[in-house]
Amino acid sequence: MLKHRFLTAIMLILVFSLSLISENDKNFMVFLSIVISLVLWEWLLMSVPVYVSKKKCTAVAIFLFMAMMLSLTFISINNIIKYKYIIYRVILIINIIWLFISFVSVFLARIFSNIERLLISIFSVILCSVVWFILIFYYISYNSWFIISLLIFICLIDTSGYFVGKYIGKKKLAYKISPNKTIAGAVSGICFSVIWFYISSFISDSFSSVLIYKWSLFLALLFSIILSFLAIFGDLFESLLKRNSGIKDSSNLLPGHGGVYDRFDGIISVIPTMFLLSEVSF
């Protein structure tokens, strides 16, 4: 299991890195569109009401992929600047809704009703679209290092939490949602991510250096802790979806890891808030 997990991680890093440093900008954009579409597909499979056909989940994910590919023609720095105030307000509203949904769901930790499933499913399409847009924006606005440093920050929360929780953790973080997650794992995840946040800030154009330049070192470190908590909540929310569906993994697409959503739940949860902190002046 651990061998499969390691090999799959290496393959993901390799494909991601090659697409990100490719001379053709479209390679990363297409790869990202595929990943987000798969995340949405797995999310919908776990969240749609029982009366909704699973085939419709696939159709919605394919439709979103096609919409994202068509939208690439219209996304540019000039268009984003032109409509930035509208974009910022839309993302702010969507992020507030997302934080409310994820926090309330995790704290209540109960089985969703069909109407709740329907609303969560509809919102998943919106949230995945927003995350895709923000990552595309980061890609065309900053260098590759910005995205890499951001993703390492989020991945460290999950990776360090997994190993520390497995070998050291005893006290459960949220037993009703995920029996395997421990408080020790969560704390270690936050610590490692904050350490990485500080170390990467010494390299120009990292996402931490951007936050520090805008807010100051103290506030940026505080924000990094908040972002770490959001990633953990995103992980717990996805675990709750799996609990509602009675499954262990969102899919079997990634051997040793489960599904694509299993690996990107923290990213989906953190990116909207990260965008607001890095781009919007309050």
From TrEMBL:
Its EC number is 2.7.7.41. The chain crosses the membrane at residues 31-52, 59-81, 87-111, 118-140, 146-164, 184-203, 215-237. It is a multi-pass membrane protein. Keywords: Cell membrane, Lipid biosynthesis, Lipid metabolism, Membrane, Nucleotidyltransferase, Phospholipid biosynthesis, Phospholipid metabolism, Transferase, Transmembrane, Transmembrane helix. Coiled coil: none annotated. Belongs to the CDS family. This is Phosphatidate cytidylyltransferase. The lineage of its organism: Bacteria, Pseudomonadati, Pseudomonadota, Betaproteobacteria, Candidatus Kinetoplastidibacterium.
